[in-house]
Design a protein that fits this description.
Blueprint lengths: L5 H4 L5 E4 L2 E7 L8 E7 L4 E4 L5 E8 L2 E5 L5 E4 L4 E3 L6 E5 L3 E8 L22
Antiparallel strand pairs: 1-2, 2-3, 3-10, 4-9, 5-8, 5-10, 6-7, 6-9
């Protein structure tokens, strides 16, 4: 059994920040459960570009409002508490926040916590980090 709090993760190597966002990685690949689980906060009035070519991500919005844009189709979707989106087709996308947003995210395959977004917003394949 694994029990962790976001309080104990804060300020450790599981607490990752970049321009416009912060991700507290609660479960990572080395936990050996086949997925990773994160609490991500996106700054108010910001734009973030992502493209997870090697991961499927499910996102549950628990706080804040914004817009999700699918770069492949141009479709826009409002984001608010209770909204879930699943990037099951590895879609390149943009999150434009109106207010600070807090999201709970699951990645498969799990991330290691050492990934860095490349210029396209993607993480490298998991095997390249081992």
């Amino acid at each position: 059994m694994i029990v962790r709090t976001t309080e104990e993760i804060t300020g450790t190597d599981r607490d990752v920040s970049a321009k416009n966002w912060r991700s507290k990685r609660i479960i990572l690949a080395d936990d050996g459960v086949g997925f990773s689980f994160h609490e991500t906060t996106i700054d108010a009035a910001s734009v973030s570009e992502f493209h997870y070519r090697h991961h499927v991500e499910a996102v549950w919005v628990v706080e804040g409002t914004g817009t999700l844009t699918n770069h492949e189709t141009g479709e826009e979707h409002p984001l608010r508490p209770g909204t879930m989106y699943l990037l099951n087709g590895h879609e390149a996308h943009r999150v434009t926040s109106e207010t600070q947003m807090r999201m709970l995210c699951v990645f498969n395959p799990p991330v290691t916590g050492q990934e860095v977004h490349d210029e396209s917003g993607a993480y490298p394949p998991a095997e390249s980090l081992t």
